[in-house]
Amino acid sequence: xxxxxxxxxxxxxxxxxxxxxxxxxxxxxxxxxxxxxxxxxxxxxxxxxxxxxxxxxxxxxxxxxxxxxxxxxxxxxxxxxxxxxx
Length: 86
Prior knowledge:
By secondary structure, the chain is mainly alpha-helical. It is 53% helix and 0% strand.
């Protein structure tokens, strides 16, 4: 999942300004930490930091199983994105 998200972000970032890129990266990070689509971040931490077995069980387990809709979710606005910021 991270590979597909990163590739898309790099491709989009080539034609965007720094402000837009920072907003996009913040959204992606928030979606990853919330774990709404998958729990790969938590699983990676488990396999590396907690259990230290270095055998993460990614879901989905293959790139072919990751749909464009799944990746799209990480680029969507967060709740409250439309509120005024001070």
